[in-house]
Each structure stands twice: as C-alpha cells, then as structure tokens.
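Write out the bound-state structure for PRP.
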Amino acid sequence: MSFVKLRVVDHPLIAAKLSMLRQVTTSSPVFRALVEELVTLLAYEATREVRVEAHPITTPVSTTVGTRLSHPRPLVVPILRAGLGMLEGMMRLMPSAEVGFVGMVRDEETLEPFTYAERLPKDLSGRQCYVLDPMLATGGSLGGTVKFLVERGADHITCICLLAAPEGIENFDRLMTDLGVPCTLVVAAVDERLNERGYIVPGLGDAGDRLYGLAD
Ligand code: PRP
Ligand code: URA
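---
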C-alpha cells in the first residue's frame, strides 16, 4: 500500500510557466516571479482539504453563514533555502496560516541532507502542515523535514513541489510507509530521472542558485 498520494496538477498555465522556469536563459527576477505564481496555482489544488468552519457574517443586504479557516491554523513549512521562494505565493492564498522553518542543504557528494536550522512548534498534533520545496530529487530533504513534523505529532501533511524525480517519489513513499503516516504530494510535473550527480532531468538546475545566486 502506498502512503503517498501523488497529485500531478495538469493545467496549461502551469505547463507554460514551468517551461519558462526550466529555460536556462530565464533570469533570477523572472524565475522568482514564476515560482511564486506556480506555487499559488498548485496551492489552490493542495488546499482542497484545508479545514474550515462556518461563522455568521453580515453582507450589505442580510446576514448569512460564511466560511473561515479553523483553529489550529495550518502550518506552512518552507525548506530553506529554495523553499523560501515558494512562501509568499503560498501565504497569498492562506494569509492567516502560520510558518515554521527547516533549513537543509544536500551534501553534493553523498546526496545526504544536512539540517542547519529548525524552528517549528513543539506540538503539531491536530495541525495541518504544508511543506514547500521546489525540488524532490532523491527525496532526502523532503523526507527529513517530514520526519521532524511527524516526530512532533503531525498526521496531516501535504507537500508541494514544482518538480519531482520518480526515484525520489519512491524513496519518499518508503519513508512515509515506515513512519506510518499518509501524505499528499502535489507537483507540477514528474520528470524522467536523476542524473549521476543527483540532479533532476530535464529539471531546471539548482533551484536555490537560480532563485538567490550561488551559495558556495
Ligand atoms: C535543493 C532543493 C531540495 C533538495 C532536493 O536544496 O531545494 O531541498 O536540493 O534534493 P534531495 O531531494 O536529493 O534532497 P539544496 O540542498 O541545494 O539547498 P538550497 O535550497 O539551499 O540551495
Ligand atoms: N536540487 C536542485 O536544486 N535541483 C535538482 O535538480 C536536484 C536537487
């Protein structure tokens, strides 16, 4: 049984924006704007099951019953650095959500993620969590982050990625099965494969570098 429910969002606007994002000639400012737009489109799909409650409202004409997000507020978790580029586009759709942070960097030799920052609420039980990272390559960074959430009691987790590799999805599913927690993975596209350096093919290159410039 698979613990990861994969949702590939098939939409012509997403496909067109993603193609511009992949282009090697796309500049950082345009790349950042496209990432924000893409995450807003994906978030619309990814938040279909966000918990809401009814509450009374007054229109200029009458009273009626409105809808608002329930408590506890959803938690959005961008994986630094590249996930930060997705935060604004997500918060635009869900401004009352709260934000937790995980900083991870992949060792480019071993492809293992290293955690350098973590600022999350201690208790995530009953909390809907939305993890943001543009790239799911080997799945190590996403898997490590989701493990932090599960250790704090999260049991409703949705991950939003722009691109995923089949190998990474498989590894991530194995981890979620071991943790025994179901998870929804929303992506704009599943690419062909990983290359020998662990990069997604055809991919878009190093997402963090394209958003913010070379780190090393
Ligand atoms: C990238 C990306 C993911 C990770 C994916 O981050 O944003 O977090 O690689 O690779 P994985 O699935 O094999 O773990 P990177 O480690 O380059 O850090 P950065 O965002 O700071 O550039
Ligand atoms: N991280 C990236 O930023 N891009 C890839 O293709 C793989 C990992």
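---
Residues 28-46 form the longest helix (19 residues).
The first strand starts at residue 4 and ends at 8.
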